[in-house]
Amino acid sequence: MKNSRITLKDLAKDLNLSPSTISRALGNHPAISDATKKRVQKMAEELGFRPNSIASSFRKKKTQTIGVIAPRIDIHFHSLVISGIEEFAYNNGYNVTIFQSKDSLKREKEIIKILQNKMVDGIIVCLSIETKNCDHFKKINKLGIPLVFYDRVPTDFDTNKIIINDFESAYLATEHLVKSGCKRVGHISGSQTTNIFKARLEGYKAALKHYKLPVEESLILFTNNLSYEEGVKCAETYLKSTTKPDGIFCANDYTAVSVIQVFRKAGIKIPEDVAIVGFSNYPISKIIEPHLTTINDRAFQMGEAATKLLIRQIEEKDESISSETITLKTELIIRESSIK
What we know:
Layout: H1 8-15, H2 19-26, H3 34-47, H4 53-60, E1 65-70, H5 76-91, E2 95-100, H6 105-118, E3 122-125, H7 135-142, E4 147-150, E5 160-164, H8 166-179, E6 185-189, H9 195-210, E7 220-222, H10 228-240, E8 247-250, H11 253-265, E9 275-277, E10 294-296, H12 299-316, E11 325-328, E12 331-333
Parallel strand pairs: 1-2, 1-3, 3-4, 4-5, 5-11, 6-7, 6-8, 8-9
Antiparallel strand pairs: 10-12
Helix pairs in contact: 1-2, 5-12, 8-9, 10-11
Keywords: DNA-binding, Transcription, Transcription regulation
GO molecular function, one term: transcription cis-regulatory region binding
Domain HTH lacI-type: 6-60
């Protein structure tokens, strides 16, 4: 079937005007009279003319598109970040293309190549769990493509970062358990190859040391992905222990919810016997009984802040914002799971 797309030349021929006049009339150029603009716009609408956005992008050297690489969009934290990104981008005339690395370094590298070819104006990234070396992002940096990282960020080169203070947040969560009367506080941690989970573990330890409580290594359990299933296994490990914790700080809400469910089935009362605190304020934290005390990690605001910083970099080309770190303040939300 023959391609029937209407072009600028078609409009110009029908209206007996030059293609450049047609282009300027459609772009509302002040040099073109209102009468000509109306005439051109009317004909364009009648014929179903649509501007060639790709050609326009080449002319402007901008695509008005932002690429986003998230580990997993089915995790509530990342879906909220993406919502924040899209909201701010849309309000500022940008489109968003989203990719999932699925926490795979190989996949992350492949996505970067795709984004280079798509000529996006900038990229927002949360590193995969497997990413230890950021050379593929350093190349993007050298090409002058604006980059902003959120949550899991590089430590081996200067770049824009939007983070929270994971150490301080974990300290606050653990301190709350201590002040609630807990003497033996356990911790379910994420992978220690990831900086944010290292920081949460250190914040937990620092709070215990400050209040002169022992850091019992047997009460610190490690997971790979902080999944619900891993939380169940950790809860079962605690149940088998001869010295059980009376408080547990979990590095995310999924593991906290699984601990509550396993403990309650075993006849352990929450929070009377064991107080629980999670991290991230997922929707399930307000559904589980008892409602879960958790840290609000400001995911939506993180997405907004990342996009705001990226667009500044795209539009202002300001060297002073090529390596800025913004730390968002978190909040401890106290609910029934930790009030003894």
